[in-house]
Amino acid sequence: MAEAARERRGVGVELTGVSKTYNGQGVLRGVDLVVEAGELLAIVGQSGTGKSVLLRQIIGLEQVDAGQITVGGIALERYRATPHEEKSFRVAMVFQNAALLGSLTVGENVGLRLRERGRQSEAEIAAIIHRVLEQVELAGTEAKLPSELSGGMRKRVAIARALAIDPELILYDEPTADLDPLLTEQIGQLILRIRDARGTTQIVVTHNLPLARAIADRIAVLAEGRIAECLTPAELPHARHPLTRAFLRASALEA
Amino acid sequence: MAVEALPRSPRANPFARIGATLLDVLQVLGEATSLFLASVRSISAAPADRRRFVVQMVRVGTDTLWIGALLSLFVGMVLVVQAAEQVRDVTQDILGPIVGLAMTKELGPVLMAFLLAGRAGSAMAAELGSMTVYDEINALRTMDIDPVRFLVVPRFLAATIALPILILYADFIGVWGGAAVVSLDPAITITVNMYFDRMLEWVHFSDFVVGMLKGTIFGMIASIVPCTFGLRTRGGTEGIATSTTAAVVWSFILILVFDFLIVRITFALD
Prior knowledge:
The structure holds two protein chains of two kinds.
Chain A: H1 2-9, E1 13-22, E2 25-35, E3 40-44, H2 51-59, E4 66-71, E5 74-75, H3 76-81, E6 91-94, H4 106-110, H5 112-117, H6 122-135, H7 151-164, E7 169-173, H8 181-198, E8 201-206, H9 209-215, E9 218-223, E10 226-231, H10 242-254
Parallel strand pairs in A: 3-8, 3-9, 6-7, 7-8
Antiparallel strand pairs in A: 1-2, 1-4, 4-5, 9-10
Helix pairs in contact in A: 1-8, 6-7
Chain B: H1 14-42, H2 50-86, H3 95-133, H4 136-142, H5 147-184, H6 192-202, H7 205-231, H8 237-269
Helix pairs in contact in B: 1-5, 1-7, 2-3, 2-5, 3-5, 3-6, 3-7, 3-8, 5-7, 7-8
C-alpha cells in the first residue's frame, strides 16, 4: 500500500557533480547523488560541511557553480522558470528554524501559498488547513501566532505548511535541531507517516544519526564536500568511511 | 629572532578603503534602484494585496501621526519667534509668508520624510532584516511567492501615498502653530488675520504641488531604502541592527540629495 503511494506521489532527484564555492572556499566539491521517487533519504554530516547548502541548491535558492540537478527528470533551472500553474509537481522545504511568518497566524502561514495562487475558494483552503494541521496534531491552533507556539509546534506547523500544497518532494533542513528527544521522535514519526500515507520523496538533512537510522530508507554521508558513502540503516554498522564510523561511535556513546 | 611582518590587508591601504567604500555605495544604490524598478513593475498586483497595503498605511500613520503633529506645531511656533526677532526692525507682515512657504515647500516635506524614514522606515528595515536572517524570505521564495510583491510593494505604496498626506497635515499644524504664537506673543505686532492674509497672498497652489511632489519622491526613498537594507541583511541580530541604522542614515542622505535636486529643477523651470 505504502509502496503504491510512493510510486504515485514522489519525484526523483539527481545531482551530478554539484559544486559550490563561497569566498574561494569549496563547500560542495562534486556531489553525485540519486534519490529515488518516494524515497526517504537522510543526509548526515558534521556541522558546516554544506548539508544545508546542498538543500538550497536542490530547491533552487542558490545556483550551483558547476554540475547539474534534475528533479522529476526536469533540469532544476527549467523547473524554476516554469510558471507555477504549469508545474507538474511541487517541491516544499521545511527550514531549520521553521521560518514561519511572524505577523501571520498559524492558519494564514499554512494557507499562504494556496491563497497566493488564488485558485481555490476560501472554504476549500480552510478545509485543507484544518486537514494538514490535523495530520501534524495541531488542529485548533489556526488562530494562534507562531510566537505563541513551542519550538516543536512551530516545526510541525512548518511541515503542515509544506503538506498544504500536496508536494511530491519535501526537503527538511535539520527538522529536529534544538528539540528534545521526545519531540525529535514525534517529528521522526510524522516524517514516516508522510512517507507511508503520501509516498512523497523526502530528503532530511540532519546530524542526528539515530533519527536518520530510525526513519530513512538510505543515509548519505556528506564529508569534504562529497557524498562519502550512501548506506541503508542495516548496512550502517559496516560503514567504511571514518566519519560515518565516528558518527556511529558518538551516537553509541550518546545512547 | 627576526619577526616576519604580517601581510597588510588591502583594507589597511587608504586608497583601497576608499575604493571599497565607493564600491559599497554603488552596490547599495544599484540594489535600491533595481528594487525600486521591481516594485514599480509589481504594482499591477497591488489590488490583490489590499489588506497588506491597508495594514502598512495604518502602521505608517500610527508611527508618524502624533509625533509629526508635535514636531510641526513646534517648528511653526519656532519659525514665527525666530523670524519675528530677525525682522523686528523691518516688518512683521512677512511672518505668514515665511511660515507658509517654509512649511509647504521645505520643512513639511523634509521633516515628515525624516520622521517616516526614522520610525516607519527603521521598522521596515528591522522587520525585513529579521525575515531575511531567519529564512522567512527564502521560505516565500520556495513557495513561489515573490518577496518584492508580497512585502516591498505594500510598504512602498503605503509610504508613497501616506507621505504627501502627512505633509499636508504637517503644513496645516505648523501654520496654526505659528498662528498661535502670533496671537499670544506680545512681541508680535501683527494680528492673526494679517498673518493668514499675507500668507495666502504669497503661498500659491504650485507651492503645495512642489511639497506633494517632494512627498511622493521622499516616500519612495523612505520605503525602498529600508527595504533594500532589510533584504540585504546578513548575520544575526547584529546584522539586523547594522541594517536598520544604515537604512535610516542612507534614507536621510538620499532625501536631502533629492530635496536639493528637486529645488534646483523647480527653480530652473520657473
